[in-house]
Structure prediction request, 396 residues.
Amino acid sequence: MKFNRYIIASFTALALAPGFVSCGDDDDFTDTIFPDVPDTVDPSSATYKFDTWLIRNFRDVYNLEFCYKMEDVETDMNYNLVPATLQNAQDLALLTKYLWFDAYEELCYKEGDEDSGKEFLKQYGPRIIHLIGSPAYNPSTGTEILGLAEGGIKVSLFKVNELNVTDFNQLNEYYFRTMHHEFAHIMHQTKSYPAEFNTLSNGRYDDNNWQDRNNGIVNSLGFITSYASSQTREDFAETIANFITRTDDQYNLLLWCADQNWYSGEDATDQSKAQCYYYYANDEDREANVRTYTLQFVDDKSRNLMTLVDSSGNVYSTVEQVEAYLARMGEKYTMYPYEISDGVDGRAIINQKVNIARNWLKDEWGLDFDKLREIVQRRQYDFNMDELRQEIENIQ
Prediction:
């Protein structure tokens, strides 16, 4: 069975302090919200170095408990789950600090104020990060949960035992896009985003069948992912997370797809497949509707990429590759795009949504959305896992 990945936010309570804090503001910060947790670790413990590193880098700095030994009281008993392996938990903790917390610290740092970069996540970051080794499957809907944000206080990350530190597409797909998505939920639970956002795709959300909607089709409808088309708050969080983590090539292909007219087959209600552009060997074929060649949108699961595939099975993952393919075919055949249109300017709507998020982050939070994206994009490429692991090994 194919499982669509998604993330959930629980809105039962607002656990974060009300008010406004921009980068560098210095509000009151309590020493800890975990008074019953010991401040020291038994040096004879097999996990002494890792536990000490977590205390020094998360609890002492951000008032955050990083739970890697899966606790049943923190999980949903409806799912059959397993703990994360120690090595994967260590690697994900190191990367979480480097690619999420350190990215915000760099964004918010003010020269001459050593602690200024940490203040934003001290105030608004989650208080618990909980790692789970396996995904949470829902066979009835064909979906799997990658993350949970609960009450503005806890973020749970699943599928940790599949961590591959050499594949940044997988790191983003399973973990870091999820982290930014969940943090966007925490932020908008604290400070509501503009109601204008909810009107841009009014009438085009599908909370029950989003998992069956092809990404090419939802892009053309103005959604950044299929999950974004489920409901407004998921749309908002997905818009932020995907803008931050997708590379220029990935993001530009998404916008290219948003420009196309997609055809889903004879059954217009079936949005699980999507194809655009077709061509005929000659004009007679077009009149007889005999042989067509198409360009289809598919998810390349092996590389965690959105891709386009031609009728021969060749895969294209950038706009340049797609345009070069269409140019080659145009030299041989008469090319025709599908004339079926959804009447929506998908690119314009996605850009509007990104701009609303950009202004909201600036006006309400004092954050530069584009600078944050630049920092995250750079850090995705420049980390050295062996050097990061030494942070734990060097603990005294």
